[in-house]
Amino acid sequence: MITNKEYYKITGDIVADFGTTITNPIIKIDVSSTGVESSGVLNCEYNIYFSAESYESGKYFFKAEKDGKRLINFTYPIENVPGWSWLAYKEEQRKIIADTFDLDIANVVLVEEPT
Q1: 78 to 14, 15, 30, 47, 55: CA distances (angstroms)
Q2: Which residues fall within 8 angstroms of residue 73, CB to CB, at 6 or more apart?
Q3: What residues form DSSP beta bridges with 110?
Q4: Which of 17, 20, 38, 65 sits at 20 to 30 Å (Cα–Cα) from 27?
Q5: Mean pLDDT throughout 61-79?
């Protein structure tokens, strides 16, 4: 379960499990840099939600499709986010989402939950 306090509103479509198209979904992502020094990749876990209402109720559509295959969790090259750090990770996650799901970064908007 992803427990961080931010998510990303998407403007556009993502093809999810079984070919279902979700318009303007929400993505919650957790990116781990554990082992990045030796592997060169960040480990990414994510959930896709149909809407803000489904996000608030905890109902997510499990995973997306990429290149005709189910994308469970994925890795992302650290070299593609050279500013990756504790201070910049929220903005860098926007890039990771945009690149992974073939979106324009302007269509990936960070939303921080109240603490």
Answers
A1: 24, 25, 15, 21, 28
A2: 43, 44, 45, 46
A3: 8
A4: 38
A5: 82
Token pair listed for 100? 């992974």
Q: How far apart are the first and last CA of the chain?
A: 18
Average pLDDT over every residue of 60-81? 83
Q: Mean pLDDT over all residues of the chain?
A: 89
Residues shown for the chain: 115
Instruction: Match 């996000």 to its residue by tokens.
Output: 55
Nearest to 99 by CA among 78, 71, 80: 80
Whose structure tokens read 């990045």?
36
DSSP string, 25-86: -EEEEEEE-TTHHHH-EEEEEEEEESSHHHHHTT--B--EEETTEEE-SEEEEGGG-TT-ST
SS3 call for 4: coil
